[in-house]
Write a structure and sequence with these properties.
The chain has two helices and six strands. It has 158 residues and is of the alpha+beta class. A hairpin with a 5-residue loop joins strand 3 and strand 4. The longest helix is centred in the middle third of the chain and has 20 residues.
């Protein structure tokens, strides 16, 4: 009888919401990460404040700053030691199907050219994460080691 060998497709893939601490951990930036079966970052989506010149701002405060959903291949801000919540763990294809829904919603957000709320008070980058989670039909969970200030979380952008 042949030994059973695990293949990468049998190892669960994950979609997690991670939180990057800001302002000495008092505030947090929520974003989504797609991890393969070996816990390597396949893709990341961040809601970001983007200036008129295309530069990323820590927080939007200028009148021309826009709220954008930025999809990147591989890790941008993710580290395994960040506070996080697993939103999905399962087969690769199902994870990819869910992630595609998030990417489609990210494109829809970007077509709106939304203004970034002054100092993040309102629908902000955390709201992008909430909107993408909602688009995938997943429950939004509080990340481990969550920040005290979590403005925009739970608000839908569109």
């Amino acid at each position: 009888m042949a030994a059973m060998v695990s293949t990468p497709d049998e190892t669960p893939w994950q979609i997690v919401m991670a939180q990057l601490p800001l302002a000495f951990g008092l505030a947090g930036h929520n974003f989504l990460v797609l991890l393969d079966g070996n816990a390597y970052v396949v893709s990341e989506v961040n809601g970001l404040a983007i200036g008129r010149d295309g530069s990323v701002r820590a927080v939007g405060w200028r009148p021309g700053d826009r709220l954008r959903a930025v999809v990147s291949s591989g890790a941008c801000y993710y580290r395994a030691d960040l506070g996080q919540a697993v939103l999905y763990a399962g087969p690769r294809q199902a994870a990819m199907d869910l992630w595609l829904k998030a990417e489609e919603k990210a494109c829809a957000i970007n077509t709106l050219a939304l203004k970034y709320p002054f100092l993040g008070c309102g629908k902000n980058s955390n709201s992008v994460a909430s909107t993408l989670i909602h688009a995938m039909g997943l429950p939004e969970c509080q990340p481990s080691r969550s920040a005290v200030i979590d403005f925009g979380r739970g608000m839908l952008v569109v």
